[in-house]
Design a protein that fits this description.
Chain A contains seven helices and ten strands. Chain A is an alpha/beta fold and about 230 residues long. In chain B, a hairpin with a 6-residue loop joins strand 7 and strand 8. Chain B is built from 14 helices and twelve strands. The chains are: A alpha/beta (about 230), B alpha+beta (about 400).
Chain lengths: ~230, ~400
């Protein structure tokens, strides 16, 4: 498989007051198109920071980060936003649905940034919601859905623009085991059937085991699963 | 598409905290009503001056309005080039029942007064009856209604400037030519008062408060005024002639400080509600920081987030503003009913309405500025960590 994500000597340092706080130190990582990667590590290891950088919602301090050949760190904010809209689907731990929008409207949200007409948007949304098994819950608001159902709506929202990459930050962290399994099965399908590249942060080894590849970070350094020790 | 979506989302966001939003809208409505009423009070104060005829001059004693002029000046004024009609009037100031039953009373020259004031419309037969009866009076429609009088009724007044008990018979009712004419006056015969007062207080006899002059050419008001005043220069009672508008504004100038205070309060009310609204929007934006960050992560721009906040703020402020505008009319009517003796007219002007709407917009925009700026600037990763 060709490399979708190419990371070289990636570093990220935050500043706390005048103190620099290094979070990622010289990360080298290649993720192939269609891969399913699980990022693990203890709290503060930098896994969420790495995910944020890959998703284009944060910028590295050093190194290069190419996604499908695009140096996203060099993109201006507006271009980066447009790039995210077209290429990344997000799945958050707490679903991050708009509480004032129903399931249909939440899933439709990313399509508003595309030139699709109303009828086409409807068709896409219905297909996505059917795929996550919530075709009958389109008119339901988030507070009328269970946690698992909300996360499935979030997954439908993540895949609605047919992005190359799906990033998931602790997607099962707020769910019971059954709901977590449902969500993981869905991610498996997205990867297996639709060929989506998935990068997922998790604390849960069972969850991580669903991925094809495990990347382990500690104190900002890649310990297992880097370019040298494929899985 | 995006504009309608922003409006829909902003409207939905607005009602997430129904009580908070409801109270804020109510607060804005109260502020806008207060602003409108206070402005209308000020406008109404100036209305008399604004409505004054530019072809009408008022001549009074140079020293002060409280000094009177000899009635003989009338004939000399009539001979000044450019003068068309002259009449005169003086404040009578009687008390009907007690001070609370106030209405303005003027002793006027019955023969000429209504020629100079054609906007006081009196049926010819009633005017003729008034002219025939020296104890007769013509009363404005509103004062008639307020006191429940009818033609032929006797009205007793206790004199203050002119001592004694006076009794007048209502011979006619005048109506304004339009709704901006004062319909509250009580007009009696100057000749009758003058005749009676000669016997008891000769010093007040043959004196008038003001001469009211219609001129042929409104453009010549300055020249005619100067000509009138020059005719009485160095006399015992020098005159001051000015347009009716300037005369009215002179009255208003006496309460100018109060009017400035009222106007200031009107704007302070807007500033206060602006601060309240800004607080509401700041709270709302803070609570939704994670949602804004999510929108940005999904590819929506910082500008979209700012517009969303601005849209919500404007929806709220306009809802309150339009409610306030709608309430202004009945409340202005109620206020006018309760204060009919104070104001000639009490009309909410289009300018006031426009200012009310503009104030609503300004409240919405200003309240959204800081939260919109902050939310658009927040980094996505920080926003996603925000606790809701």
């Amino acid at each position: 498989m060709s490399s979708l994500i190419s990371i070289r000597s990636l570093g990220k340092t935050y500043r706390r007051g005048n103190q620099p706080v290094p979070v990622l130190l010289g990360i080298d990582l290649e993720i192939a198109a269609g891969d399913y990667v699980s990022l693990m590590g203890p709290s503060g290891s930098g896994k969420s920071t790495l995910l944020n950088l890959i998703a284009g919602i944060d910028k590295p301090t050093s190194g290069t980060l190419l996604i499908d050949g695009v140096d996203i760190a060099a993109l201006p904010e507006n271009d980066l936003a447009a790039w995210r809209a077209a290429n990344v689907g997000f799945v958050f731990q707490f679903y991050n649905l708009m509480p004032v929008l129903n399931a249909f409207e939440n899933v439709e949200l990313p399509l508003l940034l595309t030139p699709l007409g109303k009828a086409e948007r409807r068709e896409h949304v219905e297909t996505a919601l059917a795929m996550v098994g919530l075709a009958d819950r389109m008119d339901h608001y988030p507070n009328e859905l269970s946690g698992g159902q909300q996360q499935r709506v979030a997954i439908a929202r993540a895949l609605i623009t047919d992005p190359t990459l799906i990033v998931a930050d602790e997607p099962t962290g707020d769910l019971d085991r059954q709901s977590a399994d449902d969500v993981l099965n869905l991610l498996d399908r997205l990867n297996g059937e639709l060929g989506k590249t998935i990068v997922m942060v998790t604390h849960d080894p069972k969850c991580a085991a669903r991925a094809r590849r495990l990347v382990h970070l500690e104190k900002g350094v890649l310990i297992v699963g880097g370019n040298g020790d494929g899985h | 598409m995006m504009a309608s979506y922003v409006f829909r989302l902003a409207s939905k966001n607005m009602w997430r905290h129904r009580l908070r939003t409801g109270l804020t809208i109510a607060g804005i409505a109260v502020a806008i009503v207060s602003f409108g009423l206070l402005r209308t009070v000020v406008d109404s104060w100036y209305a008399g001056a604004e409505l004054s005829s530019s072809a009408r001059l008022i001549t009074r004693a140079e020293a002060s309005l409280s000094f009177s002029l000899p009635v003989t000046y009338g004939e000399r004024i009539r001979r000044v080039p450019g003068v068309k009609d002259v009449t005169w009037a003086i404040w009578f100031g009687g008390i009907y029942i007690d001070e609370k039953h106030f209405f303005p009373q003027f002793a006027v020259d019955a023969e000429t007064y209504f020629d100079v004031y054609p906007e006081f419309v009196v049926p010819p037969e009633q005017l003729a009856a008034f002219k025939r009866d020296r104890r007769g009076v013509i009363v404005g429609r509103k004062t008639m209604l307020k006191n429940g009088w009818k033609i032929g009724d006797q009205v007793p007044l206790k004199g203050t400037i002119y001592p004694g008990t006076w009794s007048f018979t209502i011979r006619g009712v005048y109506q304004g030519a339009d709704d901006k004419v004062d319909e509250g006056q009580f007009l009696l015969h100057w000749g009758y008062v003058n005749e009676k007062i000669k016997a008891v207080l000769p010093s007040l006899a043959d004196r008038v408060g003001v001469f009211v002059i219609n001129i042929k050419d409104p453009g010549a008001s300055a020249a005619v005024s100067a000509a009138i005043d020059s005719g009485f220069r160095n006399s015992l009672a020098e005159t001051r002639t000015e347009t009716q508008k300037a005369f009215q504004l002179g009255f208003i100038a006496m309460v100018d400080t109060i009017l400035v205070a009222i106007q200031t309060v009107a704007y302070v009310v807007i500033l206060i509600i602006m601060a309240v609204m800004a607080n509401t929007m700041a709270m709302a934006a803070r609570e939704r920081m994670r949602e804004y960050a999510t929108l940005k992560a999904l590819g929506f721009s910082d500008r979209f987030v700012s517009i969303l906040i601005l849209g919500e703020s404007l929806s709220m402020s306009l809802a309150g503003g339009l409610l306030g505008v709608a309430l202004t009319f009945p409340l202005a009517e109620a206020f006018f009913s309760a204060t009919r003796d104070l104001f000639l007219v009490f009309t909410v002007t289009p300018v006031t309405l426009a200012l009310q709407v503009a104030s609503s917009l300004l409240i919405g925009i200003c309240a959204a500025l800081a939260p919109a700026w902050n939310s658009s600037r927040v980094r996505i990763v920080d926003g996603l960590r925000a606790v809701t």
